[in-house]
């Protein structure tokens, strides 16, 4: 497997799914999105905020430009439309970042201090990158469950349905 192709495909999947998730979430009122329903980050809004925050933390680690934050449940943007606009901007930034990746990047070690347990962590860069994309999928899965519980179907979420990988055989 080519890890650079993996990163680019996952960045594309991330942007595609975030658009679908935000479209589905836009049906809800602000009150419904922010209602504490017992999710790990309490609400749909809290989970979407966490995803953007975590993406910024990881991209900061990958690029050597750390993102300052207070906690993993910090609310970046209380306004849904602003959160969505920032999400779109960051998704485009993630795509651009994957376009700049080289084999040398992937072969290096990534070191950072964990927020969860303030100790120095060291991982192969490619492994941390895989975690980055897996983390996104994990929390979007939580949001799709919360949407489904409200009768909102975000549609197909499987990676295999990523539009740019679809071919038509007739």
Salient structural properties:
170 residues, two-stranded antiparallel ribbon, globular, 6 helices
Written account of the structure:
The protein has 170 residues and is mostly helical. Helices cover 58% and strands 6% of the residues. It is built from six helices and two strands, in the order H-H-H-H-H-E-E-H. A two-stranded antiparallel sheet has the order 1-2. A hairpin with a 6-residue loop joins strand 1 (109-113) and strand 2 (120-124). Helix 1 (3-25) packs parallel to helix 6 (125-149). The two termini are 29 Å apart. The mean pLDDT is 92.
Distance between the termini: 29 Å
Helix content range of the residues, please? 55-70%
Secondary-structure element order, N to C? HHHHHEEH
Helix count equals 6
Strand content: 5-15%
Rg result: 16 Å
Please give a quick description of this structure.
The protein has 170 residues and is mainly alpha-helical. The chain contains six helices and two strands, in the order αααααββα.
Topology:
Layout: H1 3-25, H2 30-34, H3 44-63, H4 80-100, H5 103-107, E1 109-113, E2 120-124, H6 125-149
Antiparallel strand pairs: 1-2
Helix pairs in contact: 1-4, 1-6, 3-4, 3-6
